[in-house]
Amino acid sequence: MARAIPTVSLLIDDPILAHVSNHLGYLTLNRPNGLNALSLPMIRLLHRQLLEWADDTEIHGVVLRSNDEKAFCAGGDIRSLYDSQKAGENERQVFLEEEYALDQYIHAYAKPILALAHGFILGAGMGLVQGAQIRVISDDARMAMPETGIGFFPDVGASHFLTRLPGELGTYLGITGLHVRPADALFTGLADWCLPRYQFAEFKRKLDTLVWDIPAIDCLSNLLASMACTKLLGSELKALSNAIDLHFAFDSIEAICNSLKSEDRYELQDWAEETLRLISSRSPLALCVTLELLRRGRTLSLADCFRLEQHLSGQWFEKGDLMEGVRALLVDKDKKPQWNPPTLAEMTQKHVEAFFAGFK
């Protein structure tokens, strides 16, 4: 039996619930009214508890999960950052600094973290999951970095984890913001295991009786091997991977679009047209900065990727399209963002490079 240890969260309505069972620390995202949108208090609670468990010899690993029926985490609490910026406050800088620090800490955590994620795993949720040593998703999971749709760029370490996907898949997903289904998540390497949602409860019961007679990472992996799978049939991205590699290898959004427009294979024309439609709905500035970010991220360490994302985010609320994207999609909900500049034709490389200036 694991001994009882103090935890940060004691109340059932706290946004993060923490408890220990059979030498595993459980951190449960518990903000169901907001699809577990990550807030600054949640970030601090998660980080503080992970720090405490890191030094506790009775804790062999950590399970990160969700209480929400629909989502593991559907992103950051971007509406609160919008309101803070409008009020002239500095919450967004503190939020992003502490969020990136938490994500980077998860990547380097000394004990295995098992992310048990279902439903929507978007943006900030991806930042939590991608750093875990063991990434388990449900059969109803939907993973995405959808930031370009609200005038932002893929952050939370995406410049590292997207650029390590096969071929140009990371470029494609970062630019379009498309949701990835379980078969595609396993194919791309965004997840390690798929466990049917109905088996989550049984998985927890087996964790409660797990015998820790070998290293914790091996105990957890062996249990998953008996219940979950590492491959699924029907990956759409696998079928499209050659076309994605062809069209998204270019170093400008304009060239990518021209390549897609030239697609003359009948079986790929609908996909190419839909991809062009998606790109045309995104912020031109966010698209071009995202492409530059992903190209640079290929040669940067994880720590430098986070530093570069911090460098960009520090400018973005004043100079980028995020405030307008949030206004149009989440505040006024007119779904008619006035991007600046409004078209790709008006974008220049000088405009993009200005955001990266000064980064060393």
Automatic annotation (TrEMBL):
InterPro entries: ClpP/crotonase-like_dom_sf, ECH_dom, HIBYL-CoA-H. Keywords: Hydrolase. GO terms for biological process: L-valine catabolic process. This is 3-hydroxyisobutyryl-CoA hydrolase. PANTHER family: 3-HYDROXYISOBUTYRYL-COA HYDROLASE, MITOCHONDRIAL, 3-HYDROXYISOBUTYRYL-COA HYDROLASE-RELATED. GO terms for molecular function: 3-hydroxyisobutyryl-CoA hydrolase activity. It catalyses: 3-hydroxy-2-methylpropanoyl-CoA + H2O = 3-hydroxy-2-methylpropanoate + CoA + H(+). Pfam families: ECH_2. It comes from the Bacteria. The keyword Hydrolase applies. Residues 25-356 form the Enoyl-CoA hydratase/isomerase domain. The lineage of its organism: Bacteria, Pseudomonadati, Pseudomonadota, Gammaproteobacteria, Pseudomonadales. CDD domains: crotonase-like. Transmembrane segments: none annotated. Gene3D superfamilies: 2-enoyl-CoA Hydratase, Chain A, domain 1. Its EC number is 3.1.2.4.
